Amino acid sequence: MKKHLVTLLTAVFLLAMGTQAQTIDSKFGVDSVKTLVNASIYGQLVKQKRYAEALPAWRYVFVNAPKFQKSTYIKGVSIMRYMSKKDPKYVDTLMMVYDQRIKYFGNDRKYPKAWILGRKGTDCLRYKGKTTEGVKEAYTYLVESMNASGNITEPAVLNSAMAASIKLLRADQLTNEDIIANYGKYISILEKQIQVASKSKTKKKIQNVKSNIETLFFDAGVADCEILANLLTPKFDAGIEDVNELKDMISLLKRSECTGGDLYGRVAEKIYKLAPSAGAAYDLAILFQKREEYDKTEIYIKEAIATETVVENKADYLYKLATIKFSQKKYAEVKKYCTQALAINPKRGDAHILIGKSYALFSKSYSKETFEQHTVFWVAVDRFKKAKAVDPSSNVEANKLIKLYSQYFPSKNEAFFRNITPGTRVKVGAWINETTIARFRDK
Prior knowledge:
The structure is a single chain. With 443 residues, the chain is mainly alpha-helical. The protein has a domain at 347-443. Helix content is 73%, strand content 2%. The chain has helices at 2-17, 32-47, 51-64, 71-86, 90-105, 113-128, 132-149, 155-170, 176-196, 200-219, 225-237, 243-255, 262-274, 278-290, 294-307, 311-327, 331-344, 349-366, 370-390, 395-406, 412-416; strands at 425-428, 434-437. It has a two-stranded antiparallel ribbon with strand order 1-2. α7 runs antiparallel to α8 (155-170) and α16 runs antiparallel to α17 (331-344). The chain is elongated.
């Protein structure tokens, strides 16, 4: 602190020796000594995050020495963000800080006017985004920033622009077509930035913004399959050879449940051709499932299972194959693939539920005797209870199924003639091959 004071006093002394006239347009403003003193005061207070205390000294420099230094505006933003949270009236001053920085430092090579506008637009959306007029104002700044910055637009600005777009859509200020156009433009810029990013940390940050913009876009509900096809087909037809771009494209189609269309098939087949992999094989399996070409579906999904190295994905593929077998009423195979999925991930409640459903639907084929058929519901309910035990997210569905199938348990009268009492251990055979505990329906 003493060293800082000595440096400040030396600067003040040297300035006091000068004879040059001082005006507001001078570097040090109307009073160089006051400028240096106040700049030192607010600089130290901002470092300590004592923003309210820094405000008077900062205001003096902002008003009386606007050309003094760029940090007046950098620190001014920090001060005004803090003050705006305390009192909304300071939001207008925050906007003024950006405007004055543009006026005096807008030609800065590294942080020019376009960059400053992007920050202004983002803060405008943050602090004035509760009203439609505030969002429109923010959107104007953001669009101007993007138009000037092009492919080097900050990812955060693109994210704010997408958020503002959705707000304006809901306020009937933008159309579905506007949102789709914006989405395509923003994603294109981010994809280019990902390609040229040299640091993995930078690339990851851009990818996170891209994922967030995709979430905003799909949550807006403007993209049905026809719209997506119109948006993506020209891009595909232009001759994309970049596998990552193609994977992003197919991811969007899957996320929107648009896996039955022509475009999905073309993209999936091209990915598989350019870069065969477990994921590419799985995407083809989904394609052929939609087309009800089950032989091809099984070929590709089994290839995906055999070649997948990420165990969580392998479990997903196994479960998917089990659901296909379920739709074909091949219940023994449902259990086979669900069991393999559970061996990888024992907490898959959905796999237990699918096995339980398979048991219940197989019950009439298990035996010609009604009592034997009803014992199958014991092991079905056992599976639904296991689902609840390993995966709380399956509770709602499991409880419904437990209530449904418990009413089909054997009656005490049926069990009496077989010398089975509550709590007796009973083996349910065939491919089910499970032992359970006897319990009976109330009536």
